Amino acid sequence: MDTLLITNSTIINCDERQERCDIFIENGKIIEMGQSLKKEATRTIDCQQQSLFLLPGFIDSHIHGANGFDVMDSTQQALEGIANHLVKEGVTSFLATTMTQSNENIEASLVNVKNYVDHFEGAELLGVHVEGPFLSVKRAGAQPVEFMQPPSISLLERWHELSGGFIKIMTIAPELEDGLAFVKQLSNLNIIASMGHTDATMDEVQTAVEAGVTQATHLFNQMRPFHHREPGVVGAALQEDDVFVELIVDFIHSHPKAVNLVYKVKGAKQIILITDAMRAKGLPYGEYDLGGQTVHVEEDGARLEDGALAGSVLTMEQAVKNMKAVTNCSLEEIVAMTSTNVARQLQATTKGRIAVGYDADFVLIDSNLTVHKTIRHAQVVYEKS
């Protein structure tokens, strides 16, 4: 039986911290916690000399690719490549995120996720975030307009079945024809309805929230902006208490002061940090592909030929550092924004917290928020050299 004992750790949860705490883990689950545990284990990690903080592993619920791979490649190698890369930045779980393409291409990626074989060397694949094709052409961004279509409940049900029930989030423009009925069906299927790439008005958003929308995809980006006479999607998302907001904190997608505004208005309990990264993450600047479109990756971000942002090359580690720099948020709040909030949204009941009965998914960071070690199901999957 595989057992792990972590000793002398400073544990950070979203609502507490425990110093000099030991954790006994058996077969990837936390079995016992306390000070000076008298347990024999096959492996031991002593945190005392390194002065590191033990946090629940980061969860990236919106990522398209990394290290040369993209979810839309629809290969096992691509999913493995992304998963293996993510642990370097403290991510222990993720949602493979699709983009607007032909139905055939989207379906191929869904089936590929359903058939994914986990080798436990990288981050855990929790399911799929389907971003498009039920989006507004007025707020397309890097999503190809030619493949956008009205919301279709029959197509949703087909995709739900093809994916083996692995669709966890779907980004939709709820103001489109049949959008509200679509949102209600998402709720019936236990899929998070996230409003994004949407030109909805304040009133339309409020109606969509009543129908079941509980999240906003990459807040500020590709949505009707705030105006004092029409608060739009941004104004509605900031005021709706039941709506979580995704944030890409690379200071390219959103100004630092805009990020700080969200933190002050929504609070850490309603923010979900994401990367929205594409295949160039972890690779040198240059030209890359995103859904058949050429993307130029330079210091000012990943952009299409027309200058539109095309995802990011952000890491979760850097997102955390940026969030701390602009808001001076606490480690407890970082846990909320990187793990606990999204775990609650996904109803991943054994993720997002370090407690008895939870998965042994951890990230060890120092006081500068640098990732030193990533542990997934009690296995060390990354260690800083």
Please summarize the sheet with the most strands: 8 strands, mixed
Count of DSSP H/I helices? 9
Give the percentage of residues in beta strands.
25-35%
- Total domain count: 2
Over the alpha carbons, how many angstroms does the gyration radius reach?
20 Å
* Through-space gap between termini: 29 Å
| Percent range of helical residues | 25-40%
CATH homolog superfamily of the largest domain: Metal-dependent hydrolases
Mean pLDDT, to the nearest integer, reads: 96
Q: How would you spell out the order of helices and strands?
A: EEEEEEEEHEHEHEHEHEHEHEEEEHHEEE
Shape: globular
- Supply the CATH class of the largest domain: Alpha Beta
Poorly predicted runs are: none
What's the layout of helices and strands?
Layout lengths: L2 E11 L2 E11 L2 E6 L8 E4 L6 E4 L1 E6 L1 E2 L2 E2 L5 H11 L4 E8 L4 H12 L9 E8 L21 H10 L4 E6 L6 H10 L3 E4 L6 H10 L1 E4 L15 H8 L4 E5 L7 H11 L4 E4 L11 E5 L2 E6 L2 E3 L12 H12 L3 H16 L15 E4 L5 E6 L2 E5 L2
Parallel strand pairs: 1-4, 1-5, 6-9, 9-10, 10-11, 11-12, 12-13, 13-14, 14-15
Antiparallel strand pairs: 1-2, 2-3, 5-19, 7-8, 16-17, 17-18, 19-20, 20-21
Helix pairs in contact: 5-6, 7-8
